[in-house]
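Worked example

This section walks through a single chain of length 235. The input is the sequence exactly as stored; nothing has been trimmed or padded.
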Amino acid sequence: MTFVQLIECRTSRLDEMNRLMDDWVQQTKGTRTATHAVVGTDRSDASHVVEVVEFPSYEDAMRNSNLPETDRIFRGLVALCDEMPTFTDLDVVRDERLSEHVVRRFFEALCAPGELPPLNDLLDEDIHSRDPMNPQDTIGLDNVRAEFRMWRGAFDFAFTVEDAFTQGDRACARWTWRATHRGDFLGIPSTGRQVTMTGMTVFRFGADGKIAELWWQHDQLGLMQQLGALDELEQ
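Given that input, the structure is written out below as tokens.
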């Protein structure tokens, strides 16, 4: 079970505390068991500092606490605080990866029946989309929507998200795309063929939680082969 430790203290020496934490990260490289740490200051009281540290389990947290470097850092932390820090130990009983939820909503929206949804609740107005099929990046929400409409006009399709991973402001999804060729695609008239394509998409999220950048990688050659575009070359 994931374990989180909440550390609270009061200090007017935040810069020194940050340098102390940098030292701890450097000294425990390869041995520390923490997987994620966030430090914040109270907007109504800047001297109130809160650190949230995540561990794979309580046992991993205890191993981290027993490192000699951790003890030295703790003594340094106490010296920088106006009062003794407090610790709250939390077993995580619910963990929602919101960026993963946005990724899955994005793929669902691309396949939505009827008109393409506006997507302005998911995509940044200045979004950059990078697709190896295009010689240049597609920039701006209107242009990205036009590109998605091109695909929707050529195919009836659905995405299956096979895997999705998130880290910080990035996410990556591995997907399978299954489609029926219904309209013109890169000069290829409708064939009615059932086609499948696999690929991956990397996402970067902006500060507002919307998707700011997309990087697409997919089996374009395999798709063109399934559409018969390579038949003459293979003869």
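What to look for: The radius of gyration is 25 Å.
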